[in-house]
Amino acid sequence: MARQHARDVARDLLQFIACSPTAAHAVAAAAARLDAAGFRRLDERDAWQLAAGDACYTVRNHHALVAFRVGRGDPAQVGFRLAGAHTDAPGLHLKPNAAYLNQGYLQLGVEVYGGPLLASWVDRDLTLAGKLFVREPKGPPRPVLVHGDRPLCRIPLLAIHFQRDVNEQGLKFDKQKHLPPIVGVGGARDLKFERLLRLLADGAGVDLKRVVACDLEVVDTQPPALGGLDDSLIFAPRIDNLAGSHAALTALIEQRRPGAASSVIALFDSEEVGSQTVAGAGSFLVDGVLERLTALAGGGREAYLRALARSFQVSVDAAHAVHPNHAEFHDANHRVELNRGPVLKINAQQRYATSPETAHWFEHCCQRAKVPVQRYIHRTDLTAGTTIGPISATRLGVPTVDVGSAILSMHSIRETGGAFDQELMIKALGQHLAS
Q1: How far is CA 227 from CA 8, 14, 168, 317, 322, in A?
Q2: Is the peptide bond before 347 cis (omega within 30 degrees of 0)?
Q3: pLDDT for 29-54, tens place per residue?
Q4: With contact defined as beta carbons under 8 Å apart, do 248 and 85 qualify?
Q5: Span 185-189, mean pLDDT?
Q6: Domain ranges, ordered by start, for the chain
Q7: Beta bridge mates, 132
Q8: 2-89+237-434: CATH homologous superfamily?
Q9: Angle at which helices 2-18 and 421-434 cross, to 10°
């Protein structure tokens, strides 16, 4: 029964991933879940009126979300319990003037976003997702989410007959020349691209004549799935870091009752490109929400700074599981495994924000939740990636721990995770938020 419940949680994660081909879709999916759970949406431009126990959220720029449950205590006395994750993933974004004809094919110019494993994107059925901006009678254009419901494009590999040593030398890509997908053959460029946009617009119920701009990404069409002999694995795109977003979101929704401290989660955009955007962890988004929560409790700037000094933050992202075919790339004493619970991520260069004190805090939360915990350290002769943890910790001055669930093929178009890890992470975060 316990394993079956864990699989049900994993299926819920896969449903969230399926609804979230882009960061904007992920925020919309998170907002829909919060609405269904009774959370009230707030606008940053409005005056907020809040009381203990209120459950609310706000969205910035359609790409980032902060949700919270107001605690019973004075923030200056009890601080905040924070959890952060990110909604974006590495991939290919369409250029503004994307369509062009080449050797009789209609192709789409793309930019590389973040650090994807490019080889995983070729010879796959791909489609487009993102936003169309629709002209309104008054005010700015309205963004409408779109997601192609069938394969629309493909990045074909060069046949082995023209590169006999490719299996020995490996795939090498000129990002400008080799990544543009093909979407059709023959015909006029503008008419073909207009037809492509019409397919997306019709799917969203939008009149193409009112579309003034688009912001689109190339995305996988294969649905996420449970896999493995006993459904102990998950195969999906964007596990990094929709699993972290889903875990923080679910833990907050399942909290039900407020603790002494306000529970706050932040789902940021732009982590894969450095977080320095209006919707990223380097922005003023969380600062503003926390200061308003302090002010609504009757405190000023002094009280806000005291609240930060009493706060604690968990940064949730993916961790590197030991690879069975490449175990030499992992530190022998810090190899972490799928389905063995949350991973503490530690790095002396501060690529992760974990300290001995914050690690002890998270281990205590895991102990109370009866959840196992693992420790990960990158090989000393390799450079570790980073997370929102150090950025957010620096900005807020809040003690922070970096954690994650172990996965394989990080930054591939299809990643592999453990089906039982999601439930364990949610339990650990639930203990943190309620403490």
Answers
A1: 13, 12, 30, 22, 19
A2: no
A3: 999 999 999 999 999 999 999 999 99
A4: yes
A5: 82
A6: 2-89+237-434, 91-220
A7: 144, 214
A8: Zn peptidases (3.40.630.10)
A9: 90
One-letter-per-residue 3-state SS of the chain? CHHHHHHHHHHHHHHHHHCCCCHHHHHHHHHHHHHHCCCEEECCCCCCCCCCCCEEEEEECCCEEEEEECCCCCHHHHCEEEEEEECCCCEEEEEEEEEEEECCEEEEEEEEECCCCHHHHCCCCEEEEEEEEECCCCCCCEEEEEECCCCCEECCCCCHHHCCCHHHHCCCCCCCCCCCCEEEECCCHHHHHHHHHHHHHHHCCCCHHHEEEEEEEEEECCCCEEECCCCCEEEECCHHHHHHHHHHHHHHHHHCCCCCCEEEEEEECCHHHCCCCCCCCCCCHHHHHHHHHHHHCCCCHHHHHHHHHCCEEEEECCEEECCCCCHHHCCCCCCECCCCCCEEEECCCCCCCCCHHHHHHHHHHHHHHCCCCEEEECCCCCCCCCCHHHHHHHHHCCCEEEEECEEECCCCCCEEEECCHHHHHHHHHHHHHHC
**Model confidence at 192: pLDDT above 90:** no
* Mean pLDDT to the nearest integer, 131-145: 95
**What's the token pair of residue 6?**
């864990």
CATH 2.30.250.10 assigned to 91-220: yes
Q: What residues does 343 pair with on adjacent strands?
A: 374, 404
User: Encoding tokens for residue 151?
Assistant: 């394969």
**Measured CA distances, 194 to 98, 155, 189, 198, 327 (Å):** 12, 20, 9, 6, 48
Residue 337, token pair as written in the block = 């495994």
Q: Which positions ≥6 away from 420 have C-beta within 8 Å?
A: 3, 6, 7, 10, 232, 339
β-bridge pairing 374-377 and 343-346:
parallel
This prediction's pTM: 0.97
